[in-house]
Specification:
Layout (H helix, E strand, L loop, with lengths): L1 H25 L5 H7 L2 H4 L9 H21 L9 H20 L8 H23 L7 H21 L7 H25 L1
Length: 195
């Protein structure tokens, strides 16, 4: 039962995130293409006239962070056979980072530093977590290989983004480095329920 609960939590959080971002992007004050290509995910969560559904995007961040904490410590931890302390630390860093992003908005000079810190914790911590998970389980099969590939893609995208912050298409790299964690959450939900 614990296995199914944890798996369902991972699935719901990842699907909710994708749907919430899509709905928020649809109502953003720009074309859908421009919203995804030249506006960051964080912009969807800033409470202003450009993003009337900012609360929906922020709820997705907060739910993702809480789900990651709950499902990982409730059941997924049982699949980790080595590097346990680092796994717990990276899971907490990633989840807290995502929650910070949901509560502390970007675009405000007084809080943008905290928002950026949360984003780095979530993106960098999350993709390192994927690589760690792939190498910390008992076997190295398709799920573990997928986690490793996603983590590497996310880290490369983050690295390129970090050195191209002023590029107009930087949000594409941001989304690429964030979606790896969302996809992993979905795959993990499926993996836990099936195994």
């Amino acid at each position: 039962m614990k296995r199914k609960v944890a798996g369902i939590v991972f699935l719901i959080a990842s699907l909710y995130y994708i749907v919430a971002e899509a709905i928020s992007a649809t109502h953003f004050n720009a074309s859908l293409y421009n919203t995804y290509a030249i506006h960051t995910i964080s912009e969807l969560g800033i409470p202003n006239v450009n993003s009337p559904l900012f609360w929906l995007m922020n709820s997705a961040f907060i739910l993702m962070g809480l789900a990651l904490l709950f499902a990982s410590f409730y059941k997924f931890k049982d699949y980790i056979v080595k590097n346990n302390a680092v796994f717990y630390m990276l899971t907490a860093v990633t989840a807290i980072g995502v929650i910070i992003v949901g509560f502390v908005h970007g675009g405000n000079p007084l809080t943008s530093g905290y928002h950026t810190l949360g984003a780095v914790m979530a993106i960098l911590g999350g993709n390192i977590l994927l690589v760690l998970v792939s190498r910390s389980m008992e076997v190295f099969e398709s799920y573990q290989k997928a986690a490793l590939i996603l983590g590497i893609i996310g880290l490369v995208a983050f690295w390129i983004m970090f050195f191209n912050m002023h590029n107009i298409y930087m949000p594409v790299l941001e989304r690429l480095s964030v979606y790896t964690l969302i996809i992993w959450c979905f795959l993990t939900g499926v993996h836990i329920i099936r195994n």
